[in-house]
User: What shape does this take?
Amino acid sequence: MNYLNLIAVIVVAYLAVFAQARQTLLRDLFGAQVDLLPSLMVYCALNAGWGVLAGIALLGGLWFDTLSANPLGITSLPLFTVAFIVHWHQDLILREQRYAQFVLGCFASALAPFLTVLLLFGAGDKPLIGWGSLWQWFVMTVIGGVFCPFFFWLFNRLNRDFAYQHLPESTFRSDREVKRGRF
Assistant: This one.
């Protein structure tokens, strides 16, 4: 991951958290709060190293917890766990396929809230969970799956438009001398 991509991921993570807290259109339409950070972590897990994964999980989790009722820092561990699982198996994943990106986004968007609720119970908090929570979990899973291919498209587009592209090497060697004339 180059510096342009890293800065873009950090900015998009910040804007995603801000948009989730500020924008109420999807919340009012579906009756569930949307979380885009797990889908962003899937992109990072398939395109970045461990340091970037830890940094984005920590920053995104802290930003998310600052604007939610969660204790500060409790979301960072589930985000990193999701990224760890995807990054660990990245050689087996068809990262260019939209369907695989959708499935990974659904997986991440389902696992991160589940792990967060487990951590909240483990910390002694009592989150409000009822039958409506299953609907909210389903909506979060599907919308996270839909946004995951969008993140891949967005960052690939930014990389293609603003970063230097690798040029294929020529078959002509520059250290080779060409003899001209008769045999």
